[in-house]
Design a protein that fits this description.
It contains seven helices and eight strands. With about 220 residues, it is an alpha/beta fold. It has a domain of about 150 residues: Rossmann fold, CATH 3.40.50.2020. A five-stranded parallel beta sheet has the order 2-1-6-7-8, sandwiched between helices. Strand 1, helix 2 and strand 2 form a beta-alpha-beta unit. Helix 1 packs across helix 2 and helix 2 packs parallel to helix 7. It is globular.
Length: about 220
């Protein structure tokens, strides 16, 4: 599906959930996975994939580490409970080393903690030891955020760690294969561009939308 274009994140999540369902059904140790979405857009995809799988969804927070003077230029990422992961090629291109990003990393740790408290108020992450864990994002360009999240999750001892995204750059899929037990993508084009170009509608996702998707229907405000 190199030229797959999704109507929106909801459709992508449903299709991804169906693909993962087939994969798990053929596994000799089939079990209901713990589905974790990367905020913000990944939570939307994960929520719809979780419906297709018949399981709840939870959030796992990761943050991009940007250039000190160009925050949108990602040089690495950090996930809750994990250590920073850097894109060495991007660092070299920027003429920086990891130590130069100490203040940025400290600021992102604070923002990460704030978002964990906002998205998962009063809830700890469920125990992962020995479980099948499915981490979901809405797409993968460089893969550094997914890499940081997968490493942080691996340290928690899951029995099986899967990563799924509707679309991912082919090179990133190859690199992430070392971090997850299995990778599930619906499209992996050689010429990738940006994640948004593979969706007909790719709006910004707000914190409020993330919180709503993570709130069980019975506890939502009426």
């Amino acid at each position: 599906m190199d030229r797959q274009t999704f109507s929106d994140r909801a459709e992508a999540g449903r299709l991804l959930g169906q693909r993962v369902s087939v994969l798990l059904a053929t596994s000799p140790a089939a079990e209901a996975p713990l589905v974790l979405g990367l905020p913000r857009g990944g939570v939307v995809v994960a929520a719809h994939a979780a419906v297709a799988l018949g399981v709840p969804v939870e959030v796992f927070v990761a943050r991009k580490i940007g250039h000190p003077r160009q925050p949108e230029y990602g040089l690495g990422a950090i996930a809750e409970g994990g250590e920073p992961v850097f894109d060495e090629l991007s660092l070299a291109h920027a003429g920086l080393v990891a130590a130069d990003l100490g203040p940025v990393v400290a600021a992102e740790r604070q923002e990460l903690a704030r978002r964990v408290a906002e998205y998962r108020p009063g809830r700890d992450l469920p125990p992962l030891a020995g479980r099948t864990v499915l981490l979901v994002d809405d797409g993968v360009a460089t893969g550094v955020t997914a890499r940081a999240a997968l490493r942080a999750l691996r340290a928690r001892g899951p029995g099986r760690l899967l990563f799924a995204a509707p679309v991912a750059a082919r090179q990133s899929v190859s690199e992430l294969a070392a971090e997850a037990d299995e990778i599930v993508v619906l499209g992996s084009p050689v010429s990738f561009g940006s994640v948004g170009q593979w969706y007909a509608a790719f709006p910004q996702v707000s914190d409020a939308e993330v919180v709503a998707l993570l709130t069980p229907p019975g506890r939502r405000s009426r």
